[in-house]
Amino acid sequence: SQTIHQWPATLVQPVGSPLSLECTVEGTSNPNLYWYRQAAGRGLQLLFYSVGIGQISSEVPQNLSASRPQDRQFILSSKKLLLSDSGFYLCAWREPPGRSYTFGSGTRLTVV
Amino acid sequence: GEDVEQSLFLSVREGDSSVINCTYTDSSSTYLYWYKQEPGAGLQLLTYIFSNMDMKQDQRLTVLLNKKDKHLSLRIADTQTGDSAIYFCAEADTGRRALTFGSGTRLQVQP
Q1: Mutate which: B22, B44, B101, B105, vs A, most A CBs within 10 A
Q2: Is the CB of residue A89 less than 8 Å away from at least one CB of chain B?
Q3: CB under 8 Å to A15, separation ≥6 — which residues?
Q4: Which segments in chain B show pLDDT lower than 50?
Q5: pLDDT digits (tens, 9 = 90+) for A30-76
């Protein structure tokens, strides 16, 4: 069966510290992968998407980066966190040509 | 660019029907989606509709699409307290192959 895993579920990090959030998908090959961020009480903002290994498209200028070292692994990183990086980070995948986008359970990041 | 708009809040009584509305601007959208988010959780796909369809029904859920007016609605029949959540409308961007979301409608169901 197809599943998506995100970890950690919650994270509290000080300003200026690094970040690494991981997302893995099982039961599929060559999925499209996505990172979204949801600020408190807001909608979802697309941060990055990837259509293949090593292929990353960035949607907004920021101090975050993404990498896809393996087909089913998508990593969100930062070298130095800002207070404004706080939010709920969601990973999602889609198996082309399917139309269903499936989301992970999310990581709640609080930068203090 | 793409823009998706929703009203922020809807309150209904248990057993009534709920109608959540959404408007979008991208005329090239091919698929439109409804997701549900419960507190502290990820997004659950409820249903999606192809842009050449007017209506799609799935048990208590009915989606209506007016492509001319770029208006999408989600009707929940016999609304239950368990339906209390935030509902997001989204469109699939054929260019980026990603979803563009509205800001979400918080549905409150009163017993």
Answers
A1: B101
A2: no
A3: A80, A81, A82, A83, A111, A112
A4: none
A5: 999 999 999 877 789 999 999 999 999 998 867 999 999 999 999 99
| Chain A, window 29-48: residues with a beta carbon less than 8 angstroms from a chain B beta carbon | 32, 34, 36, 42-44, 46
CB atoms within 10 A of CB B61: 15
So what's the pLDDT on residue A78?
96
- Find tokens 């903002």 and name the residue: A45
| Cα gap B63→A2, rounded to integer Å | 26
Does the CB of B35 have a partner CB in chain A at under 8 Å? yes
| 3-class SS letters over B57-99 | EECCEEEEEECCCCEEEEEECCCCHHHCEEEEEEEEECCCCEE
